[in-house]
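Same chain as my last thread, 358 residues:
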Amino acid sequence: MSAETRGVRRALLALMRRESRGARGRLFFMTTCLALGVAAVTGVAALVSAVDGALNRDARSLLAADVSIESRRAFPLELEIQLDAFGVEEVANVVEMGAMISVAGTEREPVLAELKSASPEYPIFGELVTDPAGIRPGELGEDELIAAPELMAQMAVGVGGSLMIGGQPYRVVAELVDEPDRVDFAMTLGPRAFVSPSGLERTGLVQFGSRLKYKRQVKIGPEATALDAARLVTQVRESVEDAPYLRFKTFDKPSPGLTRALDRIASYLGLVALLSLLLGGIGVAQVVRAWLGSRTPAIATLRSIGFRPREVFWAYFGHVLVLSLIGCVIGIAVGLSAPFVVRAFAPDLMANGAGPLQ
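reply #2:
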C-alpha cells in the first residue's frame, strides 16, 4: 500500500469523524430507527424459536406417550392386534367426557367439568402432580377422585370433601396440580377431575349417546425415534378398518393445533415486524437525504480542493454503512434478548428454560 493511498484513507476517516460532529442528533435517530426495525424482526423469530424449542425438548412429557391415538368411538379389536404385532412396550387407556358435578345437600349450581379416567399405566411419560403427592388416577378407589383447584374453589370443597357425579358421591382425595397431555388450544369444557376406570363406570354416564373421547397412549420403546412413531401410525392406518375415525399424534409433533397456532402467530407478528422495519427504513432514508442535503456546500468544497468523486462517495457512504452496522448489531442483540425478557416478566409463557441460545 503506497503512502499516498494510506494518506487518502486517513483523510477519509478524519473526514467521517468530523462530519459526524455536526449531525449527531440526526445520525442517532437513523441508528435508532434501524435498530428498532431489526429488533422487531429478530425478536419475533427468537420468541417463536424459543417456544418451538421448548416443545421439542419436552415432547414426550407433553404428549405423555410416543404415539397417542384418539377416537370418538370405542377402539376396534384390530387396533390392539396391530399394536401387539408392532411390539409396543406399554399402552395406557384414557377416557374423557363432560360431566356435571355438584355438591350434595346444597343449593350451589352444578358445574360442567371434564371427567377423565385413566388406567394405572398413565402417564407413560411426564408426571401427574397432585397434593398430597404420589396419587395416580388408575389407583383410585371407585368412589374417589382427583379434582382441579378451580373445581374445588367453585364447589367450595377441599381435600376430603365430597362431590356428586351422576348421582353418586365421590370423595376428593387430592388436588390436581399439573398433568401431561394438555398442550392443545382446543376448547375445554371446564375444570378437570380424574377418576379410575371403575369410578367412571360407577357414574352411570357411559351409555349410548354419551360423547366420549377414547385415547390409547403408546410407548414404543426406550429408544424410539420419530421414524418409529411414523411407521406405527402408517401400519395402523393401513391395517385398521376404522382408521379414518382415528386421530394420531406423535411425540415429534405433540400438538398439531398448537403448531398451527404458532405458525399463524409467527406469520402475523413477522408481517408486523417487517412493517416496522419498512417504516424504520423510510425514516433512515429521510434522515440520510436531509443530512446529505445539508452537506452539499461541504461536498462542493471537498471537490474544489481535489477530492475525487469516488473518495467523496466513500466518505459519506462509509459513514452511513458504519452507523447501519451499529444499528443492526444493537437490533439483533435486543431481539435475541426478547425470550429472556419475556421469561423474566411472564415465566409461565417461557417454561422449562426456553431460549434460543440453549
